[in-house]
Amino acid sequence: MRRGARIAAALACAVAPVSAALAAVSCVLTEPVDLPAKPHRHPTILHGAVAPPLSSVVSVVDGTDRQFAVPVQLDDPTQGYAWAVFIDYEPSLGATHSPIQGNTVVGAEGNADIQVINFGVLQSSLGPGCHRIELIVALSFVVPHVADPYGADSVSWFYSPAGDVSGCSIFEGGIGADGAFPPSADASPDGGSSAR
Amino acid sequence: MSAVDPRPELSPRRRPLPRRPAAIAACLAVIACSGAIADPPPAVATVNRCATDGDCAGYGSGTCEAATCAVNVGFDYTLVVSGAAGTDIPGYSVLLRARDIDPRRAAARCGTNLRCGAIPGLSLISGSLGADEATQRQVSRSLHGAAGATVSVPTQVEYRPLVPPRPGDDPTATVLASDVGLPLPSVFGRPISGDAFPSASGKPWGGPGATEAIGWAVSLVSGSSYMRYVMPDPPFDDAYPPVAIRVNIPQSQFVDDDYAYRPVDLSAPQTFDVGSDGASLAGWTVALYDRQSQRRISSIKTLADLPATVVLYTSLVDPATKMELVVAPPRGTIAPELGFPAAPTIPRAQTYPRVGPARHVSGRVLAAPGGDAVPAQLTFRSTEPLTSSIQNSPVRYRATAWADASGDFAIDLFQGVYEVAVAPAGETPYAATLIPRFEVSEDDVQGGKSVSVPLKPSIHGAAAVSDAARSPLAEAVVVASPVPGAFDPDHPLAVLARGAQTTTAADGSFTLPVDPGTYDVWIQPRTGSRFPWVVRTSLPDSKAPIVVSAGHLDVGTIVVPLPVDEGRTLFDSEGRLLQGALIRAFYTVAGRKSPFLIGEAMTDANGKYELYLTPPQP
User: Fold this and answer.
1) Out of B105, B193, B251, B411, which could bridge B401 as a Cys pair, Cβ 3.0 to 4.6 Å?
2) pTM (2 decimals)?
3) What is the mean pLDDT of chain B?
């Protein structure tokens, strides 16, 4: 045997047990053990692409299912998600305040991870005066307006049919600023007709 | 699996974990061939993909374009582009026709890519609302400006987008986007002070010591048209009325949009004598409103002592407008309002009648049949005189209550007769219902007033793809969307039907419970499938509208054809990639008021979006 061949053979012998051991270790690692589950995360609203934009006031609801469009980023498109729309959500009413619209979307293999939620609001759901329209998206809801422990994301719009937003003065930051809206502003439990 | 399959493939990372023997074999395979690493998961679903035209033979005329079976029969449609932070349209929605997406408008960036274009840019608008001396004298409201000067009035401003009239319509018509269901939202002006105006601009000045904002600034889409509504701020709104005027935005970077009242544009003063049959109306407001749009169209007066003589002005109001006088309580006050429609004139003398205290009314929403409790929203609207003291007094009241999971509701209402719109919570199987007569007597406390709601009727059908085998289309979203109708101010609760969604089963079938009403039915193959959205507007045999009243309605099998590949790359007017923008495609059909939403997508980091469309089927 030539010297080179002898060295090669010796190396092969030396490496073989190591390789085998490594292979064994590898095999153990690829067993179908219970890997830690990927932590769930609630759908995230892509606020910059929400329509109508969150910085504006909605002065008309046309009743169509396409007026409001909310793109959401899904952490796992196979998992599905749920959304709900509330008008003038009043925290003191808690679970008794039902959404006016909503859906549970079943996840699917191969689904894209960005989905767009389209919805509309009937004028008969609002009546005269100013209102707050709110969409909440989560993996699931425990009760209306309360998401599962993975949390939720939400967006709100301010609605004033007369276009006279000065009549709905509780609007932090001013029109065209950050669109922030204080909790339950203009959400009198009866939604009475006094707000012109 | 064939190259064209309506069912999605399992992507590698979604496959079930191998069992033990398979795992060992896989392990050995990895040792033997260290390069055999699984493909990464596909960015989009691997359905409707092809390599050659032959893969699309099952579809007849389909050919393989961009690895997708498609047809090459382009058509024109309208896009609404929204969002896109980091560009010059953050927070805006832009309307453009597909045929106007022209690479020549973005030549520097599109290069040879013909599927490329730019959206219109924005113009910076600054404006102010002025009143000259003659106007101030006419409305008896001095603005304390320099003698002889036009003085600005602090105001809020809303620009509502207009869209071109449809072919066949009056070409001079002013069409609000919202009236035809195109989702182009209003844009509101930001108040700016006099200091913000360039000194040489010649803007009207707010007067010595003025601290109020005296003008506005806003960005609007160049080359577009808007209806501009100026609404003077309190306290100036007691004399100066709102003004609505169409404006066309030129292709300029900076645009002045000033408006000054002219006495000739103001209406003759309309005078009303307001009294009360006992109640104090201090703090109440009096104004004229457009019944259709519910917008205020006159100056607005706040009452103090009664009786009061109120003078109201309007400006540039369309003579066809149906107006009404409204005497409304202050916000937060539970009291009926007085609404007197012009028929054709409004009497000068207006007396607010004695309506008595509110009655506490409670009840329960129940299912019929079955009697289950139903959570719901209840909207009450008075339909007959609320009081017997003045039978013809147009006092009216509207209020909303919520029934909880036990179906219980409670609300304060005034004596009279109401209609009640009951909208069960979306997750319940019960239909929105209009209760035509709900009486509230003179008793202070009234309980046990139950209202019942029936089960929803449903729409049945199936979805399939247009291959030779008519393969069922699973996992598609089915949307039943109420056909938009005009708002009727005399019957504001008449439209109750709400949109509904479900998903097709493995065999393509679907059952979708809906409120009674007239619907269009969309099949939306799941995002990433590369199949287009399809809308059915009529029943397959009779071609009658899809009217759902009771029971089950079968709309047959809705076939999803091959798409037209309408993906593009978009830049803004400054040549920046349009990233993260929401793209919605609309198609107009003759005889329908609103265009159809036929697809939507989002642009990626390269400004590119995938959009596979087909026009609505006749």
Assistant:
1) B411
2) 0.81
3) 82
